Amino acid sequence: MTRINHLYIHVPFCKTICSYCDFCHRVYNTNLVSKWLSQLDKEIIDKCHDEYSTIYIGGGTPTCLSCYELDKLLSLIDDYSRKVKEYTIEVNPETIDEDKVKILCKHHINRISMGVQSTDNSLLKLMNRNHDFEMVKEKIALLRNYGLNNISIDLMYSLPNQSMDILKKSLNDMISLDVPHISIYSLTIEENTVFGKKGYKSLDDEIEADMYEYINSYLTSKGYIQYEVSNYCKKGYESKHNLGYWNYDNFLGLSLAASSKIDNYRYTNTFSFDEYFNDYNAKSEDILLTVDDLKFENIMMSLRTIYGLNIKEFNEKYNCDLLVEYKKGIDNPNIVIENGYLKCTNLELLNNILLDFMN
Ligand SMILES: C[S@@+](CC[C@H](N)C(=O)[O-])C[C@H]1O[C@@H](n2cnc3c(N)ncnc32)[C@H](O)[C@@H]1O
Ligand code: SF4
Fold first, then answer.
1. Is residue 307 helix, strand or coil?
2. How many domains does the chain have?
3. Whose CA is nearest to atom 26 of ligand 1?
4. Is position 252 within any domain?
5. pLDDT, tens only, 34-91
6. Of the candidates 245, 279, 308, which is a domain's last residue?
7. Please, are residues 332 and 356 in contact by the beta-carbon 8 Å criterion?
């Protein structure tokens, strides 16, 4: 039986909904949460067979659940977390408090991903975020008091009205927190959000490119390594769970909207609460990947990190010769081979570079 090392669980609830976000979520409602927990329990019993090396509880906002519900959720997977090396939960600043931190510790969670997005109060208001930088500092100190030092923060750029100076100030504030991991995403305007409906636009490509360049050079100068297109860390603090995705490992995703990849089978659970409550096997996507799909996706995911693609492993896995088969893509000044790994040296251009890997 195929071994799966990585488990993701999607918590589809948030206390309030941010103006830019189109992740699968509903406003918190205790009756709905209780139905969801009992259906998730059944899905876990049916599908979890391994002890996982990484577990990621994402959302939505897992910490918008009450203490009782959060404890119940984490109890459901206690049996599968014994071998876990990295156990992450997403939190946002206004929904985490001391009682919830104690629950995270009780279940041996050892990594926190906190959505901060910006430290500029007028941008936070525009995004419908209910925190300021003071609160972020307080909550990070609280987490550290309980030994939760492996903290990642999410930031966003190319936000409407965001000037370079505002971005610089947010980055500077972030650095003062001295967290070991930072994820930075450029805003995507999703149709189905307040930003989309109000017709907001992301900033011009040129400004966005300047911002990306600034973020890179600033964080690098402060000792962070850009180890993936949108991710920076201090040495040794890469996200092991996400490295699993970029390594093209198998993973199991549970609850609404979660995706799974098991060998050549990829599927995504339904986005509809009604469908999920009716049948946790209901799917929104269900694909058997061809060998060519697998090879291309494996290259695409592995080139996202600075560690790149292990050529020997790739050739053995797919019984092929990468250097011959993908010569067109590899013949690019931004693609190099180092110690048996194929690497992309300009992650900003990756999407264009990948076009030549399509057979
Ligand atoms: C699914 S959210 C969960 C985080 C947590 N609920 C919070 O808000 O603090 C993960 C991250 O995705 C990013 N994100 C969400 N919508 C986005 C969008 N439209 N464009 C770019 N990044 C987005 C945000 O940085 C967010 O922190
Ligand atoms: S960014 Fe986080 S809190 Fe905001 S709507 Fe998305 S998942 Fe919910």
1. coil
2. 2
3. 115
4. no
5. 999 999 999 999 999 889 999 999 999 999 999 999 999 999 999 999 889 999 999 9
6. 245
7. yes
